[in-house]
Design a protein that fits this description.
The structure holds 3 protein chains of 3 kinds. By secondary structure, chain A is α+β, with helices and mostly antiparallel strands. Chain A has 2 domains: 2-204, no CATH class; 213-335, no CATH class. Chain A has helices at residues 13-21, 94-107, 115-122, 171-178, 188-204, 213-218, 225-229, 238-242, 287-306, 316-320, 327-335; strands at 5-9, 25-32, 35-40, 66-73, 76-79, 87-92, 124-129, 155-159, 163-168, 184-185, 249-256, 259-266. Chain A has an 8-stranded mixed β-sheet with strand order 3-2-6-7-8-9-1-10, sandwiched between helices. The N and C termini of chain A lie far apart (52 Å). The model of chain A has no long low-confidence stretch (mean pLDDT 96). Chain B has 2 domains: 8-101, Translation factors (Elongation Factor Tu (Ef-tu), domain 3, Beta Barrel), CATH 2.40.30; 107-238, Rossmann fold, CATH 3.40.50.80. Chain B has helices at 34-39, 81-87, 107-110, 125-135, 161-168, 193-200, 215-228, 269-273; strands at 8-17, 24-31, 47-52, 56-61, 72-77, 94-101, 114-120, 146-152, 174-179, 189-190, 207-212, 235-238, 254-255, 258-259, 266-268. In chain B, strand 3 and strand 4 (56-61) form a beta hairpin. Chain B starts with 7 loop residues before the first strand and ends in a 6-residue tail after the last helix. The mean pLDDT of chain B is 96. Chain C folds into 3 domains: 1-106 and 155-179, no CATH class; 110-148, no CATH class; 180-310, no CATH class. Chain C contains 10 helices and 9 strands. In chain C, the strands form 2 sheets. In chain C, strands 1, 2, 3, 4, 5 and 9 form a 6-stranded mixed β-sheet that branches. Classes of the chains: A alpha+beta, B alpha/beta, C alpha/beta.
Chain lengths: 337, 279, 317
């Protein structure tokens, strides 16, 4: 147990999660209706260990599809209590963990903090699972991440076969494991095997380089490149909603007479309504402007404002786009434009 | 940490019809809690998100001068769901405000300069705030000559008529009030704002021009200002965008890498020239 | 590349070169195994991109909503029926579309493939002679194409376009499998209302309101969809189950009598929601009540868009 490293037998993971359940709500990957999703579990053995990644990203554990900001009745406002319960997410992939760091820049900014999001971040410990076998659609390494990267994680678990190597990334992660009886001392062989697995996994990831893309985009706003790119785009929100770094939302009131709530819902820059003025004027009247906005936001504006590309290479948009509009191909086309 | 999505409750103390069509009203709002009022220290050119529970929110430029300690004034044109709900409110009703948001007018550029205000129609609101601020005895000395050119489609559509009358009697500003078309009673200027601007020909020497109005007015005013010698970096404009959060998180009001709610809504023309044309 | 594809490309080349159309909407190779992607070709020299195979799953007719000028469009049976519907509903003029009909063997349902692979990542896929071979790290599996076709394709009786300007290749013949296309609907009809509600509530609990179903559907072309209206606002836009189900049920009714079970909505849905359960039921009802199948004739109007004095009306109580 030196340097915040341990070993846990695969068979003991369920027991470890059962212990966590005594004091936390635990989210873990489960299979529901044929799809993998991160959901609260009731017992440790419900957690799925052999999965690639979830269909929906775990960003919704911090930034739900829909959440009530406050309720009101006869003019009096009742704020929804912020999250106080302690939570653990088990099995998050490094790409999704990295996306939380990017979302923090938006929701936990120096000028304004989103209390709903911040409370969830403060009360949630994240246990990551390294990707021994990245998917062919993964490209985390080209956008600042990696299959065993630790940004955003409190602990990193690596599957070594019949056991896992466990590494503490933060003090919070260490505290979760340090007194648990299920963990043993790690061995040099464990550490070496992890290094081998990680190296192989990194080699397996490939994707378009984003080097120079921002600079290209700086000069491409009026480029005819955008005229045809969007033609096959349906204008749905699959890419934006499944994307772990997309953060746009709508605020609406739902009320009957004087009673109701103000609710925050996910929204998408791909919808025409997104930028429609009450006067009827729309600065982004067609799919062309909206597709340009998506690419510019992720690979130019976010870089300008926060120094990072707003993409973690998880590949969900690549796999799920109903028309196979592949962001990797777009990045490559921009780069070589 | 204050929850930035929670509106401060405000009571509508007075509602003033501003125009003949009765679709523009000024709401005078008083904070229910003094502590809220103290938190709401604002600058000219900033805006607030007005909240009507059950209808939603809308971003409205603040029309009262920051020198008014006791109340806020916001002038609202009935356009959609929320503004219609506001127009249906009565004096004494409680609504909400969030803010103040936005960068406001660049006072460091304006102070020590001559100020030329060019406004058209309903867009006069925040420039009216700026005018009253400059005219306040505590502030007047810090600004040079003040020229205000304001126009509307017809005499009935002029807003803040009570201010226009009060300013007409003053000698510390040059006021030009014009209409596109007069009526039997109108004895003032007749002509489009850009035309009157050209005739007034304010000097660009150590001057800053603030222009707010319908796109067509701006389109024709800019060449006039250019001819008068105003460089794009000394012409300021306030933009409108569809907004929701007002605090740079919901992602919808951006023009390029700038959020209109946070980095704007006030931009110089030089800044606008370097931004993508999506507004 | 097959003979069919050669013919298809040559046809497109001719049409573009002679100037009778400005654009061909077709399919080209995708970036992933088992994917093709819609392509928009304006230059006759680019026709080599066109492909036609069992991965051509998108209904291209939805792109006619935005088309200007005269366009050519590659159409399988269901797509062509959708185009008939768009012409009948005056979304496009007959003379503005050149339908390049292709025979259809059915399209692959990728969720069936995913279920068979159970998490394994397919790196290569080949389809030939009714078999599909999937290859990945450490595995190779061959399946019958019939096992992984989209459900609607298995029982489809209109595999070839009923309306076309050019038809490439040989007619397809009858349904892939001779079984009752309404079996799944009948199973649901046999359930109690509570059981059905529980089934749909579970399916729609996964909906993320991405509207991929609506955007993929050739019938959905309203400039302002009812869910986007604010004055009045009919339904909430969040994930409240009641609002989600209201969206899907109302949309199903909006397309009833016009929907021909092309499957585009089901294939577009990232959450694998059983949308067919709703639309197929309504399609069955329309067929039984009005003896009508959508998209077969330019001269007939969808029954819910018109009224005959002898229309059955026992459902009006």
């Amino acid at each position: 147990m030196a340097n915040g490293k341990w070993q846990i037998a695969s068979l003991k993971i369920a027991a470890f999660l059962d212990d966590l359940l005594k004091a936390h709500r635990v989210f873990a990957p489960v299979k529901r209706d044929g799809l993998v999703s991160f959901e609260p579990i009731g017992r440790g053995d419900e957690a799925l260990l052999g999965f690639r990644n979830s269909k929906r990203s775990p960003k919704e554990i911090f930034f739900p599809c829909s959440e009530t900001l406050f309720a009101y009745q006869e003019g009096e406002i009742t704020v929804v209590p912020l999250l106080e319960e302690r939570r653990v997410i088990f099995g998050m992939r490094p790409c999704d963990a990295r996306s939380l760091i990017l979302l923090d820049k938006v929701f936990d900014a120096p000028d304004y903090q989103d209390p709903y999001y911040v409370a969830r971040r403060e009360n949630t410990v994240i246990i990551g699972l390294g990707c021994n076998r990245p998917l062919s659609t993964c490209f985390c390494t080209t956008v600042g991440g990696g299959p065993f990267a630790v940004d955003g994680l409190d602990l990193l678990f690596t599957d070594l076969g019949d056991r896992y190597l466990v590494e503490a990334i933060t003090e919070r992660g260490e505290a979760l494991v340090a007194d648990s009886p299920h963990f043993r001392e790690e061995t040099t062989a464990d550490v070496n095997l992890k290094a081998e697995i990680a190296a192989r996994a990194e080699q397996a990831v490939s994707g378009p380089s984003v080097e120079g893309v921002k600079e290209q985009l700086d000069g491409m706003y009026d480029d005819p490149f955008w005229d045809e790119l969007h033609e096959k785009c349906l204008g749905c929100a699959v890419c934006t909603y499944l994307c772990p770094t997309c953060h746009c939302f709508d605020i609406v009131d739902e009320a009957v007479n004087a009673q109701g709530r103000r609710v925050r819902n996910w929204d998408s820059c791909q919808f025409p309504l997104f930028t429609l003025h009450a006067s009827g004027h729309n600065p982004r009247p067609s799919g062309k402007e909206r597709m340009r906005q998506r690419m510019m936001h992720k690979f130019r504006y976010f870089v300008e404002n926060f120094g990072e590309v707003a993409c973690v290479g998880c590949g969900r948009c690549v796999r799920e786009c109903p028309v196979n509009l592949d962001i990797r191909a777009v990045i490559e086309a921009i780069r070589t434009s | 940490m204050r929850n930035p999505y929670l509106p401060y409750p405000v009571v509508i103390r007075k509602i003033t019809d501003e125009n003949e069509a009765r679709d523009i009203k000024t709401f005078e709002l008083v904070f229910r809690d003094d502590a809220d009022r103290d938190s709401f220290t604002f600058r000219c050119g900033q805006f607030a998100e007005l909240s009507v529970l059950g209808a939603g929110e809308c971003p409205i430029g603040i029309a009262s001068s920051p020198m008014e300690q006791k109340y806020l004034q916001l002038t609202i044109k009935r356009t959609g769901v929320v503004t219609s709900a506001l127009h249906n409110c009565e004096e004494g009703a409680t609504i909400g405000v969030r803010g103040p948001y936005g960068n406001g007018f660049p006072m460091d550029m304006l102070e020590g300069s001559n100020v030329v205000i060019v406004a058209g129609g309903f867009a006069f609101t925040t420039l009216r705030s700026l005018t009253n601020y400059i005219l306040h005895p505590d502030n007047r000395g810090r600004f040079g000559e003040l020229t205000v050119i304001y126009g509307a489609r017809s005499p009935g559509e002029l807003i803040y008529k009570y201010d226009l009358e009060a300013w007409a009697g003053r000698d510390d500003l040059q006021l030009y009030v014009t209409v596109d078309a007069g009526d039997e009673a109108w004895t003032g200027l007749v002509g489009y704002v850009p035309t009157i601007l050209k005739e007034a020909a304010p000097s660009s020497d150590n001057a800053v021009a603030a222009v707010c109005g319908p796109p067509i007015m701006i389109k024709f005013s800019i060449p006039v200002l250019d001819e008068l010698g105003f460089p794009p970096g000394r012409i300021i404009n306030s933009l409108e965008m569809r907004m929701k959060c007002g605090i740079g998180k919901c992602g919808r009001c951006n023009i390029g890498d700038k959020y209109v709610c946070k980095d704007g809504p006030v931009f110089t023309f030089e800044e606008l020239q370097n931004m993508p044309g999506e507004y | 590349m097959s003979e069919l594809e050669e013919l298809l490309r040559e046809t497109a080349r001719q049409l573009l070169a002679e100037g009778s159309i400005e654009l061909v909407i077709g399919y080209e190779r995708g970036t992933l195994p088992l994917r093709t992607t819609p392509c928009f070709i304006r230059d006759p020299d680019q026709v080599e991109r066109l492909v036609w195979n069992a991965s051509c799953e998108n209904n291209l007719a939805t792109y006619l909503h935005r088309a200007t000028g005269k366009v050519g469009i590659v159409a399988k049976g269901c797509d062509a029926r959708s185009i008939v519907g768009e012409i009948v509903e005056r979304q496009i003029a007959r003379e503005d579309v050149v339908i390049i009909g292709v025979p259809c063997q059915g399209v692959i349902d990728r969720t069936k493939i995913e279920a068979r692979l159970d998490g394994r990542d397919v790196l290569e896929a080949d389809v030939s002679e009714g078999l599909i071979t999937l290859r990945g790290e450490g595995f190779e599996e061959t399946l019958n194409l019939g096992e992984v076709l989209s459900e609607g394709c298995v029982t489809c009786h209109h595999r070839d376009p009923t309306l076309y300007d050019v038809f490439i290749g040989e007619p397809s013949g009858g349904a892939v499998e001779d079984r009752d296309e309404y079996a799944a609907v009948q199973a649901l009809e046999a359930q109690t209302a509570d059981e059905r509600w529980a089934y749909f509530a579970n399916e729609f609990s996964r909906c993320i309101r991405c509207y991929a179903c609506r955007e993929a559907c050739p019938c959905c072309y309203c400039a302002e969809c009812f869910v986007d209206q604010t004055q009045p606002c009919w339904f909430g836009k969040g994930d409240d189950l009641s609002d989600v189900m209201a969206f899907h049920i109302v949309r199903a009714y909006h397309v009833a009598g016009r929907c021909l079970d092309c499957g585009a909505c089901v294939r577009a849905c990232p959450m694998h929601i059983d949308l067919r359960a709703l639309v197929k039921k309504l399609e069955k009802d329309v067929r039984e009540l009005y003896s009508y199948e959508a998209g077969l004739h330019l001269e007939t109007v969808p029954p819910l868009a018109t009224f005959q004095p002898d229309d059955p009306q026992e459902f009006i109580k």
